[in-house]
Amino acid sequence: MFGYLPYWELSDDSTVIDFRTYSTIAYFSVGAKATGALDRTNNSWNGWRSSRLDRIIAEAHRKGAKVVLTVTAMAWGSGNVQQNLLGDPAARQRLIEETIAEVQLNDADGISLDFEPITDDANFVELLRGFRAQMPAEWSLTYATMGSVSSSPVINATAEGAADAVIIMAYDYRDGGSSRAGSVDPLMGPAYDLANTVAAYKNKIPASKIILALPWYGGAWSTKSDGYHARTQTDTATYGSFAQSYYATAAGLIAENGSRVDTDEVGIWVSYETGKCKVANGCYRHLYIDGPTGFAARLALVNSAGLRGVGIWAIGYDDAYSD
């Protein structure tokens, strides 16, 4: 299992890491600048260089797990950073050299890139090939992409001499803009779902190169009725907006209100009230989450499809719930 450890969860004293669960822990993340330099000016960098992460790396190695560094250059909200970085051979080389040096310094075990969405397919593949050619052969090299198979050059990016595997970020299939409440990672359903995603990627590359990353959270919407997959309220100022919901919140709501089974998309859901969203004013708050049975069904998909493994976004979002 490949688990992302975000810097904000690293700094949270309540975060518990069950080292029996993970074969790889991916620290998330250190950002890349347009020049190829690593961004050393923020909390995510401080987390990478922290004594707490040093202890986690040492403990992971004692338990037989690996730790890798995730390097990010997101295309949204960052101007032309990713585009300029990928388009400049000198910048790509600088990123390769600085990243390898950091992984060696921290005694880590590999590199994972998260460039979403990828703006320059050809040069992204060149970046992967540069990493693979210059990093130790025993290190792992992966990259993250979105659910649509067209969102990255998956064939060339996982060819010999490039990445070992692609990590599909298989969540947020629904979000705050969705017209109906439901699973953020539907296993099945009337629209594009996890089964469709796996089939699409397997049509392009071997299953052994695919990691399916699942969310350890659900989604909550204010809806117009108490029905199954109800239509969402559009007046979020009045009724409340969409929110991600972690397991501690879900468990508390389920204990108080009970849960219902989502047979179409495979999971559970709960109906409840909030300060803004009350039945008396025609509003119903609905939370959908995988739950233990739904998560097990998704693991069964990974196994039946023969995928390389499963990923988790993110360590700490489980709120230490063992089920």
Describe the protein's architecture and organization.
This protein folds into two domains: 2-216 and 291-313, TIM Barrel (Alpha-Beta Barrel), CATH 3.20.20; 220-289. Helices cover 32% and strands 22% of the residues. It has eleven helices and 13 strands. It has helices at residues 7-10, 43-48, 51-62, 81-87, 89-105, 121-134, 154-157, 194-202, 236-239, 247-257, 291-304; strands at residues 2-6, 24-31, 66-72, 110-114, 140-145, 165-169, 210-215, 218-223, 243-245, 260-262, 267-272, 284-289, 309-313. The strands form two sheets. The protein has an eight-stranded parallel β-barrel, surrounded by five helices. Strands 9-8-12-11-10 form a five-stranded antiparallel beta sheet, with helices on one face. With 323 residues, the chain is an alpha/beta fold.
What attributes characterize this protein structure?
globular, TIM Barrel, 13 strands, five-stranded antiparallel sheet, eight-stranded parallel β-barrel, 11 helices, 22% strand, 323 residues, 32% helix, alpha/beta, single chain
Set down the secondary structure blueprint:
Elements: E1 2-6, H1 7-10, E2 24-31, H2 43-48, H3 51-62, E3 66-72, H4 81-87, H5 89-105, E4 110-114, H6 121-134, E5 140-145, H7 154-157, E6 165-169, H8 194-202, E7 210-215, E8 218-223, H9 236-239, E9 243-245, H10 247-257, E10 260-262, E11 267-272, E12 284-289, H11 291-304, E13 309-313
Parallel strand pairs: 1-2, 1-13, 2-3, 3-4, 4-5, 5-6, 6-7, 7-13
Antiparallel strand pairs: 8-9, 8-12, 10-11, 11-12
Helix pairs in contact: 5-6
